[in-house]
Amino acid sequence: MENILRDSSALAPTTNLAATTRLSAQSPGSQTLELEQVAKRLGGVDIINSLSIKIDASEFVTFLGPSGCGKTTLLRIIAGFISPDYGSVKIGGIDVTSKPVNRRNIGMVFQHYGLFPHMTVAQNVAYGLRIRRVAKSERRTRVHDALSLVHLEKAGDKHPRQLSGGEQQRVAVARALVTEPRVLLMDEPLSNLDAKLREEMRLEIKRLQRELGITTIFVTHDQEEALTMSDRIAVISAGQVQQFGSPQEIYGKPASEFVARFVGKSNLMRARIVGRDENGLILIGPRGLKLRAANPQDDVQVGTDVNVSIRPEAVALRQKLSATAEANEAFATVEDITFMGAYTWTEVALESGVRMSIQSQPHGLSLGDRVSASWRDQDCVLMGAFR
Amino acid sequence: MKTLSEQQKTSPLTFHTGNPLARIIRRRFSLLFLINIPIVAFLIAPLVVVIIAAFGRSSFLEFPPSGLTLRWFAQLAGQEQLVLATVLSLKLAAGSSLLGVLLGVPAALSLERMKFPGVGVLRTLVTAPLIVPSIVTAIAILLFFGQYGLQGTFTGLLIAHTVLALPFTVSIVSAGLRGVGDQLEEPAQSLGASKLWAVVSVTLPAIRSSIFAGAAFAFLMSFDEVVVTLFLSGPGLQTLPVYIFQYIQYSSDPFIAATASIMIFFIIAVGVIYGAISYAGGLVKGGAPLPKTDLPMGSGG
Amino acid sequence: MAGPGLCVDGRISMNINRHGNDPRNRGLRNYGVLLLPAAVVLAVVFFYPLGLMFVQSLHQGDFGTEETAFTVSNYTQFISDPYYRRMAFNSISLGVLVSAMCLVLSYPLAYAIARAHPWQKVVLTVITLVPLLTSVVVRTLGWMILLRNNGLVTSVLDQLGIHAQLLYSFPGVLIALVEVLMPFMVLSLSASISSINPSIEDAAGSLGASRLRTFKDVVVPMSLPGAAAGSLLVFVLAVSAFATPDLIGGRTVKLVPVLVYEQATIVFNWPFAGAAAFILLALSLTAVSIQARVLDRQGS
């Protein structure tokens, strides 16, 4: 991780700083973005269900969700390609719901890049400026600035088809930023790139966003992208926001089973709250598995069923067995070991029959070994009352 | 993208020596090659025959000719009727391909972008002149033109040729539009363009190779058309194909073969120019010889 | 086909839109307007004349003499007279024979085009396209030279002991039309064969199938949609062809398009020419609808 970070700073020569400051200095300032009770039905199906969300100025927010969850529809509603059946879209506090796309002053980066094949890179970037009737000389400097921002100042005369996928996407970013939009919308912009390039572009987009301070919405189904880039993540499913919070919150305190499953891997189990003491809650999981959870909310009722999530990396495996199992500890048999390089996946079957996945440092265990699996109280995350 | 080795493996025409596999491939190549020799010969036979016969020395059309001469080509220039026919053919072809594009591009845009269940029916109706036998179209238009005195006029021919050109321009431009979809218009709109301006400034330039191909096809179809033109032409108003048709109905000599050869050379020249412009202008990616269309092209005998 | 509910930017979604106007429709409110010029031209110069001819075909007598009574006698005459029935039969058998022969001759060439190296593909495509783009009159002239008595083809046949009259005969028309229409079949087939993944053929080969066997068991069945499309296109064009049958067949080969021509321009019996033309049109449309249905079934 640190290596990649160093690479990216090497990628960004200091000469770009001037361009960056010029762009951000002229920028109309980042704007807040607000959706109020937005609803959209398409083909008899509710794509978006009375969805509200408020995004702060200069914030990098990711809409994360599986395909078909409505995240792209939502982005297109913000852009103005689709108008909502109900609700409003406000940019910088001003209602733009009935404004057409071209009047919203947004910047958008598309999954398929959407570069104009018959124009050069410079003409592509200049397109928005021409429409805004920016004078030719100013246009030239701004195009150059935008291209140097994405390290493509030398590619201005090339045609898009002469560029690689990553370069094409950089041009698309430059084109979206050059008009100094109030918000930047990105629709799965990295999904057409190969894995290595994707990681590079993540950091570069994040760097640009931070330097320009532009309010950005980034749509993706890739949880790793969401976790690494975002200030806040909105996990979307079935046309609604399931959870909206920082990557740490989303990962560490998933609000629902859906979030826990979708973001990262998780050992999920159903448990009943049977008691409460000064250290937190006492729960009984499947087949009598004893669990303890650091008491997060005070409103949890004893006697209710809840979903419990334990992240694979929170579980420790020990060969040496204690005499009796404590809470949050279980005896288990190693069933599968997968070496992943930096870490090892271990599948174990608890005596209670529950299976768990554990991510750990490479260990000396082998199949069939009897081990104890344990985790801390605070890693045992409750996800709301089970209905 | 296929890799080179993949192509070699699958291509029956690959010419390779060396390893046993390559030898097998070569055997396939020869079988397919041998079968195709007479087929290709059959396909181009009439064109070759016409060109060779045009050089025949005898004043009677003979093939193979007993001797060669250029005098039939020399005679072409002096034929006023022939010059008039050529000029008319070119004027008609240029005019109808221009009108075909002017009417066809908006029509294609509208057919591609309108979204309602009946749009397929509209598309079929616009391309109907391709399905209706040209002899039927010919007498129907003749009947209609007869009532308005358009029969035997240049205007009448131009309108009729435009009707015949429309299916080509519409279908080729439609295929081009389908290729880009509204994938370019959305970025343009997000950059501040109105919907109309996005179409004009981005989509149409992006599919200019399709528009060009549509115009080229319309041009060639008009230039070749004989049946409808035969019915609508009048005294002093003959296109080149009609001139040849009427000539060979009653007699045939090397002179008319020379005329026909000129048409063949012209088609080849147009093809070469089309290819050159496409390459030079970067219009056709990879120099694809055929524009995309989902409709049958050309006119049947 | 998308149902009305799926129309993203049509009127229907505008109706349920609280804000009244969908921003997508601004600037270019209705694409229908763009269709109008072409639609008007086609309506006036194509569909109206067809309608006019249809009305005409339902009347008796000469063109111009109006006030004749409505009658279907032109159609009944065509259908009941054995002479015309024979003509229709000739036309249909010509169509069937031409498409069958085109199909057989086009497969090897189409296969070569589909599977050749790029440059060979270009050469073979050009060989297919140049005849297609050359006027039918020119190619027919070539066949007139080749097929006439004491011409190249008849001389060769004479040597073989076959004495045949080709020019002004049905076989002559057949040969010329096969050549004239073959490019359509080649293009249709090669498009279809190109879409077959070559690895399927390799797989057949790896399973021990010979080259010919692979062609028969894999290529032919998988390219059937292209064969169906090509055959019916060639059928329609062959049935309605006029120039080639007229020049090669002269007045001796009786076919429907030639009848239409004679009735309209020589006999001046426009109503009967119209009726014959509509019967020809009906024949074509039937074939087209069969093609559509076959392709539909192939698709599903």
Question: Could you walk me through the main structural features you see in this protein, from its secondary elements to its overall organization?
Answer:
The complex is a heterotrimer of chains A (387), B (301) and C (300). Chain A is α+β, with helices and mostly antiparallel strands. Chain A contains ten helices and 20 strands. Chain A has a six-stranded mixed β-sheet with strand order 6-7-8-3-9-10, sandwiched between helices. In chain A, strands 13-12-11-14-20 form a five-stranded antiparallel β-sheet. A five-stranded antiparallel β-sheet of chain A has the order 15-19-16-17-18, with no helix packed on it. Chain A is elongated and about 80 Å long. By secondary structure, chain B is an all-alpha fold. In chain B, 71% of the residues lie in helices and 0% in strands. Chain B has helices spanning 4-10, 20-53, 71-76, 80-113, 119-126, 128-131, 134-148, 154-180, 185-190, 195-206, 208-224, 227-232, 240-250, 254-280. Chain C has a single domain (82-299), classed as MetI-like (MetI-like fold). The chains are: A alpha+beta (387), B mainly alpha (301), C mainly alpha (300). Chains in contact: A-B, A-C, B-C. The interface between B and C is large, with 105 and 113 residues.
Question: Quick recap of the structure?
Answer:
With about 375 residues, chain A is of the alpha+beta class. Chain A has helices at about 1-10, 15-25, 70-80, 120-130, 135-150, 165-175, 195-210, 225-230, 245-250, 255-260, and strands at about 35-40, 45-55, 60-65, 85-90, 95, 105-110, 185, 215-220, 230-235, 240-245, 265-275, 280-285, 290-295, 305-310, 315-320, 330-340, 345-350, 355-360, 370-375, 380-385.
Number of helices of chain B: 14
H/E element order of chain A: HHEEEHEEEHHHEHEHEEHHEEEEEEEEEE
Average pLDDT, all residues of chain B? 82
Q: How many domains comprise the coordinates of chain B?
A: 2
Number of helices of chain A: 10
Spans of chain A of 5+ residues with little confidence (pLDDT < 50)?
Answer: 1-15
Strand tally of chain B: 0
**End-to-end Cα distance of chain B:** 39 Å
- What is the residue-averaged pLDDT of chain A? 85
Structural class by helix and strand composition of chain B: mainly alpha
Summary tags:
heterotrimer, B: 301 residues, mainly alpha, MetI-like fold, 14 helices, 0% strand, disordered N terminus, C: 300 residues, globular
